[in-house]
Design brief:
This protein has 14 helices and 31 strands. By secondary structure, the chain is of the alpha+beta class. The protein folds into 3 domains: 16-68 and 95-276, P-loop containing nucleotide triphosphate hydrolases (Rossmann fold, 3-Layer(aba) Sandwich); 298-381, Translation factors (Elongation Factor Tu (Ef-tu), domain 3, Beta Barrel), CATH 2.40.30.10; 398-528, Peptide chain release factor 3, domain III (Alpha-Beta Plaits), CATH 3.30.70. An 8-stranded antiparallel beta sheet has the order 27-24-26-25-29-30-28-31. The protein has a 7-stranded mixed beta sheet with strand order 2-3-1-4-5-11-6, sandwiched between helices. Strand 4 (108-114), helix 6 and strand 5 form a beta-alpha-beta unit. Helix 12 packs across helix 13 (448-461). The radius of gyration is 24 Å and the shape is globular. The two termini are 31 Å apart. The structure holds guanosine-5',3'-tetraphosphate (G4P). Residues 20, 22-28, 47, 91, 142-143, 145-146, 259-261 line the site of guanosine-5',3'-tetraphosphate.
Length: 536
């Protein structure tokens, strides 16, 4: 039996991530969401907060120096009758596996695109991760208040590069200095905006008329109206109608146009988002799908962050609740090692503030103080022996041999690397035969992860480490017959084989061509882009 309370709580939750390339406007859009949700009253607060966070989070000196957010964070805020959980993904080109894993904890994503730039590298990578899970994706084309590319071209680019069909939910009225608002195709409504004072820092007026309203001529002039109608006719003729089922299966993406900075199109987007985005759904486990309304509490850890507050040297493990109800002080079962833990000090991040969590439901993200017991992909339950699947370990793209110039620090080096690997900060690999006696190899998705490791090893473990970059650029997990001799892939400098801390074999290649050659010539081997088993 499920109590109606749990059902209602699940139905009002929307857990999502914004995926974008740096500078597309993620911070600005987040800020506007908080503004419209009533969680903050004047835009600018997030940015100010971001600056002050830099000042206080010390271990993230790198973050400060490079002006980026290394860590992902999470924010909960109300909107209408709903509760949004926004997972923030680091906004630098050099992002890490954390970014990927954060996306796996969301139920939908907003793909934010700069209208002048179109689909960029990081958006593309993150899109692929969403794709792996067939996740529903919204598209918001931002910065329409600036001269950008033709909206039809942008939709075409998304279709061509990402292989997802676009359905325009609204259409821009003008662009650049003549951007006047958006037309809602389904409701045949025109949302006209006025540029607000203070650079769009307050809500703007929203009027509505129909597609053929003569007022359009005042807004766009006769040429503009003609072009606008031509676009709409093209869309009506060529465009696919919006199908909610296909959207939920990740086959089509609803497209919205707007300007986060000036608020144009933001509110209609948020309303549509609340209507269309899915509430938490069932998640795969070793015992079949887990329904969010199942009364028994369960969740998984997708991210571990160290030293968010320098005064407390412990870590925070981020848990996504998947079913049941979290109550402060409850005892949860850590399935991996069979321990029971009391969850007294869970925290949540309401708007910009940290609060102690009293209760939580599927879709919520809570931060658990971690004295060193959790690992990435750990499952917590009320005692059941089930584990969540599908928190992938992604193939690394950068590699470096690591050593401590001071040989007396070897033990510390190993201890530190083990912890950082548990946290998911970096992957640690060894040659298959030598295991821990040999010099380990660090592997990561982005080079920035190496810098983080270097800095943390020094600050937290008092070990100076040196890295020798290895010239490999791609890798695959090997799934092969028992009697297959992996030494066949060992040609130092061209390709090599390592094992990870869970004993899985990874083959690394100098370039894509070498990889393709190996794939073509070894039909009995499966080359996997994500680790064959979940990290347990
Ligand atoms: P990010 O988190 O994705 O990296 O992007 P962020 O929101 O920080 O925005 C990057 C830049 O783009 C900022 O300008 C921001 O003001 C601008 N921007 C965001 N949305 C819009 C929009 O709809 N229209 C226009 N014209 N600009 C937009 P900046 O100069 O780098 O920072 P700031 O001086 O405004 O703080």
């Amino acid at each position: 039996m499920t109590s109606p309370n749990i059902q209602e709580e699940i139905a009002r939750r929307r857990t999502f991530a914004i995926i974008s390339h740096p500078d597309a406007g993620k911070t600005t859009l987040t800020e506007k969401m908080l503004l419209y949700g009533g969680a903050i009253h004047l835009a600018g607060a997030v940015r100010a907060r971001r600056a002050s966070r830099h000042a206080t989070s010390d271990w993230m000196n790198i973050e400060k120096q490079r002006g980026i957010s290394v860590s992902t964070s999470v924010m909960q805020f109300p909107y209408d009758d709903m509760l949004y959980n926004l997972l923030d993904t680091p906004g630098h080109e050099d992002f890490s596996e954390d970014t990927y894993r954060t996306v796996t904890a969301a139920d939908s994503a907003i793909m934010l695109i700069d209208a002048a730039k179109g689909v960029e590298a990081q958006t593309r990578k993150l899109f692929e991760v969403c794709r792996l899970r067939a996740m529903p994706i919204f598209t918001f084309i931002n910065k329409m208040d600036r001269e950008g590319r033709d909206p039809l071209d942008l939709m075409d680019e998304i279709e061509q590069l990402l292989g997802i069909h676009c359905v325009a939910v609204n259409w821009p009225i003008g662009m650049g200095p003549s951007f006047r608002g958006v037309y809602d195709r389904e409701g045949d409504l025109i949302h006209v905006f006025e540029r607000g004072g203070g650079h769009g820092s307050r809500k703007v007026i929203d009027q509505a008329t129909g597609r053929n309203d003569s007022a359009l001529e005042n807004l766009l002039g006769p040429h503009g109206v003609k072009a606008f109608h031509e676009d709409l006719e093209l869309l009506d003729l060529a465009g696919e109608p919006f199908d909610h089922g296909k959207f939920l299966d990740g086959e089509i993406t609803p497209v919205f146009f707007g300007s986060a900075l000036t608020n144009f199109g933001v509110e209609p987007f948020l309303q549509a988002f609340g209507r269309m985005a899915p509430p938490p759904t069932a998640r795969p486990t070793t015992d079949g799908p887990r329904e969010p309304a199942n009364e028994k509490f369960s969740g998984f850890i997708f991210k571990i962050q160290a030293n968010m507050d320098k005064n407390h040297r412990d870590r925070v493990a981020f848990l996504r609740i998947c079913s049941g109800r979290f109550d402060r002080g409850m005892t949860a079962h850590l399935v991996r090692d069979g321990k029971d833990l009391r969850l007294n000090n869970a925290i949540t991040f309401f708007a910009q503030e940290r609060k102690t969590v009293e209760e939580g439901y599927a879709g919520d993200i809570i931060g658990l103080y971690d004295p060193g017991v959790y690992q990435i992909a750990d499952t917590l339950t009320e005692g059941e022996k089930i584990e969540f699947e599908g928190i992938p370990r992604f193939c690394p793209e950068v590699f470096a041999r690591v050593y401590a110039p001071n040989p007396l620090k070897r033990k510390r080096l190993d201890k530190g690397l083990k912890q950082l690997s548990d946290e998911g900060t970096v992957q640690v690999l060894y040659p298959p035969e030598a295991l821990s006696a040999a010099e380990p190899v660090l592997a990561a998705v982005g080079r920035l992860q190496f810098e983080v490791v270097q800095q943390r090893m020094l600050e937290e473990y008092d070990v100076e480490i040196k890295l020798d970059a290895l010239g490999y650029t791609t890798a695959r997990w090997l799934d092969m017959p028992e009697d297959f001799d992996h030494r066949k892939f060992v040609h130092t400098g061209i390709s090599d084989v390592f094992v990870d801390t869970r004993g899985r074999r990874l083959v690394v290649f100098r370039d894509e061509w070498t990889l393709q050659y190996a794939v073509r010539n070894n039909e009995d081997v499966v080359f996997r882009t994500i680790a064959p088993n979940p990290v347990t």
